[in-house]
Inverse folding.
């Protein structure tokens, strides 16, 4: 793996703080304190941490759906203020348009985006490509409610990809799925992301999860977050060879990395299971 | 389905009709009970002469005109009220204080402003139809899942396009609820409006099914005529509702 430190970051978070002020009492809650993080072109970065550590808040800020109270967010030298087609998001609850078919959902970005919408024939080609890529062939004309959880997630993934973003932001995309489906989709995600491609040709991915195994299996680097207020405890490099296969999970290196991360967050994960109020 | 099953829904109505006929014949001299046989004859006369269909058509035109105006306005105002908090907050007290006023209470005003013809009737109808449409538009726009709006934003779609491609389709089921309610009250209030204006029959009457009923009541004391009108009103209302439902079925394939 090339040394990341010598590259210019694709996305740069500098001293991000997010504070919520309760509307009636005026009470301030610090959700995230002083988070700094560089994300590099073509890397797969996972953010893990206990519930409520502000992982999703960070993702929402990169997406442009939320703004930090202090600090700055920059992508390719330009500050991030609003959502944009160059940053695609896959949501945990899929957020598919229920009144649109699979095909219409996937077509939505290329058709309606402000920057360079595609003609009908170009859309047709691209939608077909992504439907095949995520194995939704045959389900094009179904509505989201007719699909299984795994198929909905495939559709949400294809919708984000078809808009051809430079960065893919994924917010616990597999959390609502059963364990077997999750394993299958993890492997497919790596295949679609293009593990064999050179770094410059890959999409930059920021992937939020609370699954340590998932993070180690997928990521080039894992940012481990901690609670009260949310901050990054450490960033671990996952130097496991690509393309990765299921069998990797059983290896000693994999277990060692997963265990190291678990030791970092187990105390807080334990605390989170006890109600002290 | 067997013939037996197909006939089943008609058994009770036919029995009631028979009972009505018997009761009416028994008390024919002492009561003003209309007799089914007379109603049938009267119905045939009014339909074959074209009077009844013409009157119904006249009223229906007014309902559709009033409804179309009211629904368009309610759609714009309701979306604005739901999507922009300050507009909603400021308009809500005004809407809520006008909403309880019965449409028919505006009749004197409508006659003074528009006379006794179509504009006055359409105004009453529009006033009646506006509120159910408005309330359901607000509810529909407000109850859209914020998640899909966020998803559309991350796909790089402008706010106006989101309004058109996400908010309106998402609110459509509620818009149909509003439309069905609005058409119902519109049809109710057109009869009342025409009935009241019908007093001026003979000179500047309103026309329409309401006036026709008034004429039967005031000039010929013909109960059968009134009953025929009522049946006509009911049938048209049923057809309108089924029409809207068919449109709904066709426009909301994802709800099937």
């Amino acid at each position: 793996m090339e040394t990341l430190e010598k590259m210019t970051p694709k996305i740069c978070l500098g001293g991000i703080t997010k504070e919520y002020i309760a509307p009636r009492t005026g009470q301030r809650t610090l959700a995230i304190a002083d988070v700094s993080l560089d994300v590099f072109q073509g890397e797969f970065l996972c953010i893990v941490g206990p519930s409520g550590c502000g992982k999703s808040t960070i993702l929402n800020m990169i997406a442009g759906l939320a703004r930090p109270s202090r600090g700055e967010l920059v992508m390719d030298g330009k500050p991030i203020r609003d959502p944009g087609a160059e940053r695609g998001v896959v949501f945990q609850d899929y957020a598919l348009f229920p009144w649109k078919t699979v095909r219409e959902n996937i077509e939505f970005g290329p058709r309606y985006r402000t920057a360079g919408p595609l003609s009908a024939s170009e859309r047709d080609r691209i939608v077909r490509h992504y439907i095949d890529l995520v194995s939704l062939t045959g389900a094009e004309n179904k509505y989201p409610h007719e699909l299984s959880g795994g198929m909905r997630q495939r559709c949400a993934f294809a919708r984000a990809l078809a808009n051809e973003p430079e960065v893919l932001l994924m917010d616990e995309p597999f959390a609502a799925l059963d364990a077997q489906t999750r394993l299958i989709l993890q492997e497919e995600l790596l295949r679609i992301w293009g593990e064999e491609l050179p770094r410059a040709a890959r999409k930059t991915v920021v992937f939020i999860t609370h699954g340590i195994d998932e993070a180690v299996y997928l990521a080039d680097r894992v940012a481990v977050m901690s609670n009260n207020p949310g901050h990054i405890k450490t960033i671990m490099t996952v130097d496991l060879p690509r393309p990765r296969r299921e069998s990797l999970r059983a290896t000693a290196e994999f277990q060692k990395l997963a265990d190291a991360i678990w030791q970092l967050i187990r105390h807080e994960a334990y605390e989170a299971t006890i109600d002290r109020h | 389905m067997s013939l037996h099953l197909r006939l089943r829904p008609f058994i009770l109505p036919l029995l009631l009709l028979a009972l009505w006929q018997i009761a009416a014949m028994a008390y024919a001299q002492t009561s003003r009970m209309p007799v089914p046989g007379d109603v049938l004859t009267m119905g045939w006369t009014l339909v074959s002469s074209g009077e009844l269909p013409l009157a119904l058509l006249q009223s229906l035109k007014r309902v559709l005109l009033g409804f179309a105006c009211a629904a368009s306005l309610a759609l714009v105002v309701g979306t604005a009220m739901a999507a922009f908090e300050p507009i909603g907050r400021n308009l809500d007290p005004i809407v809520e204080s006008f909403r309880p006023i019965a449409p028919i209470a505006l009749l004197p005003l409508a006659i003074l402003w528009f006379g006794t013809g179509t504009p006055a009737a359409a105004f009453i109808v529009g006033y009646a139809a506006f509120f159910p449409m408005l309330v359901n538009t607000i509810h529909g726009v407000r109850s859209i899942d914020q998640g899909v709006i966020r998803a559309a934003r991350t796909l790089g779609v402008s706010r106006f396009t989101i309004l058109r491609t996400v908010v309106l389709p998402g609110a459509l089921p509620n818009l149909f609820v509003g439309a069905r309610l609005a058409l119902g009250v519109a049809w109710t209030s057109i009869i009342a409006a025409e009935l009241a204006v019908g007093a001026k029959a003979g000179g500047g009457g309103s026309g329409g099914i309401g006036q026709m009923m008034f004429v039967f009541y005031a000039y010929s004391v013909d109960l059968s005529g009134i009953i025929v009108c009522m049946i006509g009103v009911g049938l048209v209302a049923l057809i309108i509702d089924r029409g809207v439902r068919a449109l709904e079925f066709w426009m909301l394939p994802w709800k099937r």
Observations:
- The first helix of chain A runs from residue 55 to 63.
- The longest strand of chain A covers residues 28-39.
